[in-house]
Amino acid sequence: ASGSGLSSFRPAMITNTKAGLDYAIVNTEKLQRFASIPDEEKEMAEELLFKTNDENLARFTAFYREKKVVNTEEKSNLPLEERLAHYVVEGTKEGLVPDLDEALGNYPPLTIINGPLMKGMEEVGRLFNDNQLIVAEVLQSAEVMKASVAHLEPHMETSESAVKGKVLLATVKGDVHDIGKNLVEIILGNNGYEIINLGIKVAPEQIIQACKEHQPDLIGLSGLLVKSALQMITTAQDLKAAGIDTPILVGGAALTRKFTDTRIQPEYDGVVLYAKDAMDGLSLANQAMNPDQRVKLEEKRQQVLSQQGAGATTQMKQEKRDGERVERSAIRTDVPLHQAPDYAKHILLDYPLTHLKPYLNLRMLLGKHLGIRGNVDQLLKQGDAKTTEMMAVVNEVFNEALENGLIKPQGMYQYFPAQSKGNELFIYDPKDSSKVIQSFDFPRQSKNPFLCLADFVRPIESGEMDSVAFLVVSAGQGIREKAEEWKQKGEYLKSHVIQALALELAEAFAERVHELIRGGWGFPDPTDMTMLERFGARYQGIRVSFGYPACPNLEDQKGLFVLMTPEDIGVELTEGCMMEPEASVSALVFAHPEARYFNAD
Fold first, then answer.
1. Which CATH number do you get for residue 400?
2. What is the SS3 assignment for 511-529?
3. Terminus of the chain with fewer CB atoms < 10 Å: N or C?
4. Are residues 495 and 436 both part of a single domain?
């Protein structure tokens, strides 16, 4: 496929895939992005594919007979400034360097960066916000911007700078998650901002020191779990005490705009802005750097604070219920016990990546991490061009990881004798079932059905010994370093993909180990169970991770580490009770047939 036919190639791939095509070998840089294809051409391609007749064929061939090679000529005939913006919008470097060299004959390098190249990035942001581009495509555009600036920098005067603001980024104290923060660094860094990335597990005093040293225009705080959101409150308080009022940008899975406005903002003298994603963060950063917009943000801050008033205090109070105190829910205690096959520690070193690939949840990998919208499985079956292209990138990184040993999954699991009493779970010594070696106190729901995780294990008064299992898996050793290496080279998409792939391979490994545990208990999955059913937990039993709804106390990780010593497979516990490397999963596994997921109060 070449010339003008490339715009009709993407729709054609869909039908070819339905007809049995597994892969199409193409140079994706030569493919026009779907968002850029005129509606008329999309319509003609789809009419020909789905309503094949002489009339549609004649219309299609007549159109492209006249348009042959015109697309290429049209691009080359565009004004130079528009061509430069076009490279960024399309995420392609083909022809970029000659046009940059031509531009250097007409403009200073800084004018090229702040003019057509930045205009292209602004259009990328608009297309993303309009749902016409996905995260992965934004990263490809950022790669073009990075390559352009790298080519232009040698021609700039030493005193010249394309920086429009300085941003300090940090994952808060106790938190090891940095995939989201790195995404923000890439997006802001290629939209004119100088980034000082302090890394992970950054204490407030380190941020204060960095603020004094670098004098940033904006502080970005990141964190994944609820505990990290609470740490942001502490960080804001410490910054305020140090006399710092630089605008703060916060983001993370556990954060909401409401939490930001009601819990973090009141503790800080400057503006605190909640960003739902990296591109939203860019928009907010631009507003914070614009004097007029900055005034509006400050007015909004005052409005938020005044609206809280006395009502905020009332809102923060926990309602106390004077009802019946429930010791146990209606979960049955007479179901058959599933005996553990052994109490040995099972170590799985350098688990084959190829064995985990079938357990990869592509909805999470392509949807959550790369931004594909819609039913990922269906889109792949249909051969959707954008989804197919992203899957090809994932496969490329997976194969590179496989060939070069970049990802080496490590895992362990063990069964333990266990019983419960009220809300407590007691873990016994495998060699002496009369000796309690660890206990966990779980929260109970305050209203019907009054569930507590301890209910899924036989009570002590039953006189019967039950069992639970613990697992720890990791696929993250060396990933942060490799991602950073690729990021520094300007290979942003690969850098992001390997981090996402490691995270999802850890989840895949947990899924696989849980399957082994179920088999050991004597209720293996049916042979016809699909991966989709596994991802939907359509099997007996559950696995829960500390810090999540049913067992929100992250401190319980300490007990798990005492029992399992995950350090043996390279997994460490941070001061904030999170695991390092980031791509690690730990879980407590229950066998009870009525066990289910729930939110504790």
1. 3.10.196.10
2. HHHHHHHHHHHCCCCCCCC
3. C
4. yes
pLDDT, tens digit (0-9, with 9 covering 90-100), for 443-493: 999 999 999 999 999 999 999 999 999 999 999 999 999 999 999 999 999
Q: Alpha helices of 372-446 — where are they, by DSSP H?
A: 376-382, 385-404
Phi and psi angles of residue 194, each rounded to the nearest 5 degrees, phi first: -85, 130
- pTM reported for the whole predicted model: 0.81
**Residue 282 Cα distances to 116, 250, 289, 429, angstroms:** 18, 12, 11, 53
Instruction: Output helix, strand, coil percentages for the chain, rounded to the nearest 5.
Output: 50, 15, 35
Contact, 393 vs 446, CB < 8 A?
no
- pLDDT tens by residue, 363-395: 999 999 999 999 999 999 999 999 999 999 999
Smallest CA-to-CA distance from 516 within 362, 360, 402, 348 is with 348
Number of domains in the chain: 3
- For residue 324, tell me if it sits in a domain: no
Q: Is the pLDDT of residue 346 over 60?
A: yes
108 and 228 both lie in a single domain: no
Q: Looking at the structure, do residues 147 and 171 belong to the same domain, yes or no?
A: no
The strand order across the sheet containing 272-274 reads: 193-197, 165-171, 218-222, 248-251, 272-274
Return all residues near 480 (Cβ < 8 A) that are at least 6 apart.
178, 499, 581, 582
Question: Same structural domain for residues 242 and 198?
Answer: yes
Boundary-marking domain end, from 155, 187, 205: 155
- Residues 130 and 200 both lie in one domain: no
Q: Do residues 512 and 355 make contact, with C-beta atoms less than 8 angstroms apart?
A: yes
Report how far apart, in Å, the C-alpha atoms of 33 and of each of 75, 133, 136 are: 14, 9, 12
CATH of the domain at 221: 3.40.50.280
Q: How far apart are CA 134 and CA 168, in angstroms?
A: 26
Name the token pair of 5: 């036919």
Give me the chain's average pLDDT, please: 88
Domain containing 91 equals 3-155
pLDDT in tens, 553-598: 999 999 999 999 999 999 999 988 999 999 999 999 999 999 999 9
Q: Locate 10 and state its tokens.
A: 């993407």
